């Protein structure tokens, strides 16, 4: 369930997302081009290290940077999450930390906001209705980010152009539109986005394809969305999608989805 934030937060927050399920399961999250903050008001979650498979307890409140590789989360019981889905530039602006340093990181919110973040999950759990749960988080965010302002920068214009072209604007044309060189553009994306311009464009292109795919009738051919989204052929699409999410388009359609980029992995 997606909830639109209050007007005072729309420059930072894309939407709130409520995820609730009672099945103990292994979950996978992959990049949608956004960063975020997650409040867990259910049973504990474990994070599986993508390099060595080691499992560690996730904090009740954590933030995540841009994901360049998919991540695995293991539920131990009831999944009750309230996610604050942020705009691409928001997290680095809020924390005053280069976005590249947050890439592929899931970090305890208390590291950045101290004890103010500690009791938020309990307050969310105690709230009876979705609107009340979101109000708890909005109150916390407004207190913490009231002085945060995302200036109309080159990065903001770049993100806008990439979204307008659904990820199909060549980097060379992007540089021409912005009147910046390749190294300057890369430095800007490292500082404010967390992915390279090419990688970020690829993520946005894939999200456009997945949006169309979800509207496809069961058993229908997916050729039209492949070319409409700028992939050379079906093999190109599968290669890009498996790199991003670890699965093919057909497998994606068969998953139990908790969000567009968050799904259950069958045992």
TrEMBL record:
Occurrences of domain HTH araC/xylS-type (ranges): 156-255
Transmembrane region positions? none
What is the top-level taxon of the source organism? Bacteria
The GO terms describing molecular function are:
DNA-binding transcription factor activity; sequence-specific DNA binding
Q: Which UniProt keywords apply?
A: DNA-binding, Transcription, Transcription regulation
Pfam families attached here? DUF6597, HTH_18
Q: Which Gene3D superfamilies match?
A: Homeodomain-like
Checking PANTHER family in the record gives: HTH-TYPE TRANSCRIPTIONAL ACTIVATOR RHAS, HTH-TYPE TRANSCRIPTIONAL ACTIVATOR RHAS-RELATED
Q: What is this protein called?
A: Helix-turn-helix transcriptional regulator
The organism encoding this protein is: Dyadobacter luticola
